[in-house]
Amino acid sequence: MVLESILNPKNAEDKPLHVFVIAFLYSFVAVIFAHQLFPQQSSILAVALLTIIFVPFFQKLFEIEEKIEDLAAEKKISAGLFQRHKKIIFVFSAYFLGIICSMSFTHIFLGYNEVFSMQTKTIEGFSAQATGYGNFERFFANNSRVMLLTFLLSTMFGAGAVLILAWNASVIAVYIGLLTKPLAAQVGGVAYLYTLPIGLGSIALHGIPEILAYFIAGLAGGILSVGMIRERIGSIEFNTIVKDSLLLLCTAEILIFGAAVLEAFL
User: Mean pLDDT in the chain?
Assistant: First the structure.
């Protein structure tokens, strides 16, 4: 695959900046192709194209992470669970931020409103919600559902979490675009340099633990998916993978709870 010829998955975990640049460029290409091919359905097609492009890449990464789990089961490495897998979290982050920067730039400077119509409706739905205890329950239930879907998609399809991450990144990108457009009309493109950090900062308090939970759930499902294929059920390696996947999933749910508290009450 072209992506793997540009960035070797074996080295990607040491080059998150490269992942960011590639995610930025491919996001731009996905939006252009989606707009040209099926303008009315381009809102979801752009996200689907990104998923198609990156699933094989992340699948290779999950295979690498699963091998690390094997080494841990065989006592050949002593690092803790999160220490063992911290590099792939940086790769997820680079991929996520690359999409945000690329799609927000496209939304502001190229227009293509139909490409981002579904994301705009999603943001309008969020804006209509108030804060408080009732919404804490709604935020917690909705985010838990998304987190569980991320885990299940990764378990069933290897790197299915890439779809949900791309969608969430596109929603944040449009949110930043909506913040920037009024200012850009007055002062020009430099407005983007101001509103990008402001937009990210405005959702960082609850957004960081929420998105991190999706990263961790995707990792849990990804290594479990590979482990179910490669390892013998009941073996030490398989049992270690199942145990660590469940621990990662529980950690993701704790992060979702914390994010819901922050989003509802702060």
Answer: 86
Q: Interior CA angle at 227 toward 224 and 233, to 5°?
A: 110
Token pair recorded at residue 188:
């020009």
Say how far apart CA 17 and CA 90 lie, in whole Å.
9
Closest CA to 170 of 57, 42, 264: 42
**Length of the chain, please?**
266
What is the distance between the alpha carbons of residues 156 and 133, in angstroms, rounded to a whole number? 34
Largest CA distance in the chain: 64
Which residue in the block uniquely carries the two structure tokens 């050949």?
A: 76
Residue 191 burial (CB count, 10 A): 18
- Nearest CA-CA partner of 98 in 40, 21, 42: 21
118 has pLDDT over 80: yes
Per the CB < 8 A criterion, the answer to whether 140 and 260 are in contact is yes
The set of residues, in sequence order, having a beta carbon less than 8 Å from that of 32 and lying 6+ positions away, is none
Backbone angles phi, psi at 128, to 5 degrees: -80, -10
- Report the C-alpha gap between 132 and 146 in whole angstroms: 21
This prediction's pTM? 0.89
CA-nearest of 237, 223, 217, 245 to 58 is 223
Matching residue, tokens 């890439």: 162
Main-chain phi, psi angles of 226, to 5 degrees: -65, -40
Q: Is the dihedral of CA 19, 22, 24, 30 positive or negative?
A: negative
Q: DSSP alpha helices (H): ranges in 158-235?
A: 161-187, 191-230
Tens of pLDDT along 148-188? 999 999 998 877 788 899 999 999 998 888 888 777 667 66
